[in-house]
Every structure is written in structure tokens, then in C-alpha cells.
Amino acid sequence: MAGDPSELYTSAFGGFGKYGNYREHKGYAEEGPIEPAPDMPNSLFPTNAPLCRFFQQGYCSRGERCSYMHIAGHTIPVSNVTRPLPVTQQYLVGQQQVPYQMLQTPSFNQMMPGYTYPTGQHFNAPVGFAIGVPNPKMFPPPLNIAQPRTNHSATAPQRMKKTFSEEVQSRYAHVKFETLVGEIYSLCKDQHGCRYLQKRLEEGAENHRDIIFSETCSHLAELMTDSFGNYLCQKMIEVASDEQLMVIIDTVASEIINICLNMHGTRAVQKLIEHVRTPQQTRALVTALGQNPVALIKDLNGNHCIQKCLTRLSPESNNFIFNAVTKQCIDVATHRHGCCVLQRCLDHASESQKVQLVTEITYHALTLVQDPFANYVVQYILDLGDTRFTDALVRRFIGNVCLLSVQKFSSNVVEKCIRVADPETRRSLVDELLNKERLDKLLRDSYANYVVQTALDSADPIQKQKLIDCIKPLLPAIRHTPYGKRIQNKLSKEGIPTGTNGYTSVSPTPTNLPSQTAAYSGNDFPRSWNGSNY
């Protein structure tokens, strides 16, 4: 082959030369004519010059924040003997111009060993020759613009951290426990030191347990809320003697509410509740938790401690919980976490405690059914299927069926009441729907129409026929509404004719139902709401 080696290379690889046109490669945009940077003496760029090597190789992810110099058109010299010539090209990536600098080497064969041209002739670039841009179809460029560069500066600290972690673990692997006496507390908040102490407790040596307990006892409230120390506290509670467990309870009693509210502390307190064994320990723990049980019930972390008491302690020991939720029934039942705790109270209550709690819920039922959380508490009592509770609860809604039917949450309760009520109470509920003016509004409502459908399913034959007779005259006016179609389809499935023959469209007068958006607090309801039985 004849000709300049640089022309030969750029021709073969599609670079900028006599025989190459780089514009043909997709994914790159040319930024004007490319001119070589002026040759500069080595004295201006010594080997220790503060130039950014990532920028010289193509792209620096830090950009203007980089603490090293970004100078296009120059490369860091490979050696003190030979300085490669710079080759700089511009690429457009989105709206950002990225200088692309090819890696340079004294010999092409050292960069691509064993490569031969299609003609079979081996190519050796002269020393100090700056290699042009290779054809992407044959050799991908060192910097793949379409893929993010590996951030070696980010992975290096991770490798160092992992190495350091392994070194720390190995340091604790062969240490003797006796050499750590007097320094136990300093290890509790360290990840590996805490694990080391837990292993010593698991071994069951009482002398080790007593040493760890004596050095950490005064710091238990602090360690229970620590991300690592709480695990040591849990392990200590598991292996502690009765005397030590009593000391733990007495030590943290004054701070136990704050500990329960902490995301780490709640686990330690739950472990403590699981392992109390003597009546003295139980009384001390219940007294400490009884300082503010409602605050715990309404907290994301604290409510788990109360639920642990319900499942692990006796109903008599949990009297402090039932007394608190009875006094603040509405406050607890209308809370996101409180409504769940109230349902668990019903599960684990003694007979007297259940009667006490259900009686209070029944008294506030009209308020609770309209709440997005408390309505589930009312439904939970209805699902118990105990007629001692359900009959009295359902009767609280007589006189307010239409009002509750047009509300999102209470409409679900009304449906359930119609299903579970005894026949006499059910007739009283359905009777409130047998009013053409009210029924027209209920059939058009997105929630109340489901109540009407439930009434059609559950009413006795006489009441069902009365309800159908009230609905039929209203069908022509509502048959084209989404909710009217449901009622019509329901009647059609039961073989009831729904044609308009013999019926005329009725234009009902406005109803005098109370507003759905009216706000009520406690038991202060308008007299018209309460009905004769409230």
C-alpha cells in the first residue's frame, strides 16, 4: 500500500481523510470544520498538570463542577520522550457539545493486537502518531454516547467501604470478650460491635450476659431507639433473668411512651411485652404504658405496642386500654390507626369489656357511620352477628335512612343494616324509602341507588311490591341515567315489566332532606335527624 499511513487508516475506518466522510455515520453531528489544535511545547503541559483525564478521553460527567482543567485539543503526554499529537472532534448530544478525544498510543498494534487489514497487510503506526476515529461499524469508540459511562469514582468508595467492613468484621472475629470489659457501651451503637455482643448473648454464658447488662443498663432508653442498639436490647430481653427484666422495665418506664413512638423503639417494647413473666413485671409495664395509651393508639409505631398488649396480656391487664378508648371513643374510632385498634379490642375483650365498648360505640353510631374510618368499626359490630348488639345498633339509624343513604361511607352501613336486621327492624328501615319524592332523588344518587337495590333484595314480599309500585312511575324519567338503568335491569331480571304503558313521567317536587355536606360534631345533631328513638 502506498500513501501516508494516516490517510490509509482514516480511509479504511471511515474517518476524516482523503477517502473518508464521517458525516455518513448516524448518531453524530459535525460541528463545522475540524482543525488540529496548535502544537504546544511540553513545558506548558507537564505530566502532573491539573488536566481532567475524563474530559480528554471524551466526556466528564462533572462538567463545570470539575476541579480539574477542561482544555479541548490537548492530551496528557504519554511519556517524557514522545508527546502524541492531539486529535479533537466535536459531537452534539442533545443540546450539549461534548469534545471527543481519542485515546492515543505509540503503536496501533499495541492497542489492537493481532489486527490485520482485509488485504492481509499488518499496520504499524509510527511512534507518537495520533490515531483517527475508527468506523463504529467495525470498532465502537471508547466512549459510547448512547450508554452512560461507568463512574469509577463512585464505585471506588463502595469497594473501599466493603473492604473496610470486612476488616472490621475480621477484627471482631478473634477478639476475646474479656478484653472489652469497660468498653461495652461504645460497641452497642456500632453495627459490627453490636453483632459481636449479640453473639456473646446467644452463647448463653451468664457471666457475659451479666457484664453486658451491667454496662448498658443505664443507657437502655437510649439504646432502644438506636438503629443498631435496639437489636442488642431485644436480645438482652430474651435472655434476661426475672430480676434483670424487672430492672429493664423500671429503667425505661419514664421514657417508654417516647420509645414506643420511635420506629426502632417500638420493636424493643414489643419484645418486652412478649417476655414479661411475673405479675409484678406486668403491673409495672401496664402502669408505664397507661400514661398515655390514646397517643400510642393513634401513632404509626405506637399502635403496634397496644395491639401486642391485646394479644399477649390478659383482658384484666388490658383494662387501661378499654377504659381509654371508651372515654375517647369518637377520637379513637375516627382515626386511621385507632379504628384498627378498636376492632382488635373487640376481638380480645372479655364479655364485660365488649358490652362496655359496644354500648359506647352504639351511642355514637350516627356520628361514626359518616366517618371514612369509624364506619368500619360499626360494620365490624354488625358482622359479629350478636343480636344483643346488632338490634340496638341498627335502631339508631331509624329516621335517618335517606340522609345516610346519599353519603359515601354511611350508605355502606345502611346496606348492611338492611341485610342483618331482624324482620321488624328491616320493615322500619325500608318504610323510609317508600316515598315517591324521596325515592326519585335516591334513585338518581350514585350511592343511594345501591341502598334501593339492597332493599329490593332483602325486603319481605309485601314491602318489595310496595317499593316496586313506587319505582315504576319514576322509571321513564330515570331510565336513561346510569343509576336508573341498574334499577330497570334489576326489575327486568325478576320478570317485572318496566314499559311506559299506563304510566306517565312524574316530576317530583324538591325534597327537604338535610344537606349531605353539613358538619356535625359529637352528638349535637338537629332534632329532625334524631327520630323518635334517638
UniProtKB/TrEMBL annotation:
What is the designated name of this protein? ARM repeat-containing protein
Q: Name one GO molecular function term.
A: mRNA binding
InterPro entries given for it? ARM-like, ARM-type_fold, PUM-HD, Pumilio_RNA-bd, Pumilio_RNA-bd_rpt, Znf_CCCH, Znf_CCCH_sf
Q: Where is the composition biased (Polar residues)?
A: 498-520
Repeat positions for Pumilio? 179-214, 215-250, 251-287, 324-359, 360-395, 396-431, 432-469
Region Disordered, as annotated, extends over 492-524
Membrane as a keyword of this entry, yes or no, is no
Zn-finger segments (C3H1-type):
46-73
GO BP of this protein: post-transcriptional regulation of gene expression
Pfam families in the cross-refs: PUF, PUF_NOP9, zf-CCCH
Where would I find the PUM-HD domain in this sequence?
A: 156-495
Does the keyword Cell membrane belong to this entry? no
Q: Which UniProt keywords apply?
A: Metal-binding, Repeat, Zinc, Zinc-finger
A single GO cellular-component term from the record reads: cytoplasm
- C3H1-type domain mapped to chain residues: 46-73
